[in-house]
Write a structure and sequence with these properties.
It is a single chain. With 218 residues, the protein is α/β, with parallel strands linked by helices. The protein has one domain (2-52, 71-214): Rossmann fold (3-Layer(aba) Sandwich). It has helices at 12-21, 29-48, 84-93, 142-152, 169-179, 209-214; strands at residues 2-5, 53-60, 63-70, 74-80, 98-108, 114-122, 130-138, 159-168, 185-193, 195-196, 202-203. The strands form three sheets. It has a seven-stranded mixed beta sheet with strand order 1-9-8-7-4-5-6, with helices on both faces. The protein has a two-stranded antiparallel ribbon with strand order 2-3. The protein has a two-stranded antiparallel sheet with strand order 10-11. The N and C termini lie far apart (38 Å).
Length: 218
């Protein structure tokens, strides 16, 4: 499994991530959503470089132009609700992509132990498609693993790209340990943080991405 850490080098993605993290800017939910969307666009652009291509011949007013363009059939899958703006950013670039949506949530016991439950999966056939599975945060990695396995139960993709804006070291390690044997799988992250709280929030992270994008939940 190949890991792509986009924030490891200076680029505009780090400015967008910095604004997502900034507590003073998080009061503007529209800007928060837009930054998540813009990072989704960057992920889509970078992932497209890894795809097979074909030569497209275009008639211009003055002649013919030949351009290599990605030719893989794409399916974008998102864990709702936090990943919806990220999904929209990717869909703006892969505008012919099919779409899947997965509902996952955390359940806490009396000992604060967290378990992940999947409630809902809406997914077309994924056979021989390039699947991009995204969520804003990769904390423990458990929900991403469950989502990936739920998709694989519905078909065999050509390739799978897992994309998260902020990951924890534990989350990356979890994906490598439990899914890393799959050669068709790549992991894309914007930033990798060191710690998790007892409730599995990433530190320094940015807080609850779903709440910041769409308002506090009960």
């Amino acid at each position: 499994m190949k890991i792509h850490h986009l924030g490891a080098h200076s680029s505009i993605i780090n400015r967008f991530i910095a604004e997502l993290r900034d507590a003073a800017m998080q009061t503007d939910s529209m800007r928060f959503r837009r930054n998540v969307e813009r990072i989704g666009e960057i992920f889509a652009y970078e992932i497209s470089k890894e795809m097979s291509s074909e030569v497209l011949t275009v008639q211009t007013p003055l002649g013919l132009a030949e351009l290599p363009v990605p030719c893989e059939e794409v399916l974008i899958a998102s864990i709702i609700r936090a990943a919806l703006p990220m999904h929209q950013g990717m869909l703006g670039y892969f505008d012919k992509a099919q779409n899947a949506f997965i509902s996952a949530y955390r359940k806490y016991g009396k000992d604060n132990k967290c378990t992940i439950s999947l409630e809902y999966v809406s997914c077309p056939n994924i056979d021989d498609k390039t699947v991009i599975l995204c969520d804003t945060m990769l904390a423990t990695g458990a929900s991403m693993e469950l989502a990936y396995r739920a998709l694989r139960a519905r078909g065999t993709p050509r390739k799978t790209h897992i994309a998260s804006i902020i990951a924890s070291k534990d989350g990356v390690a979890h994906i490598k340990k439990n899914l890393g044997i799959n050669k068709e799988l790549s992991l894309w992250v914007g930033a990798i943080d060191d710690e998790l709280t007892v409730k599995s929030y990433i530190v320094p992270g940015l807080g609850d991405a779903g709440d910041l994008a769409y308002g506090d939940k009960l």
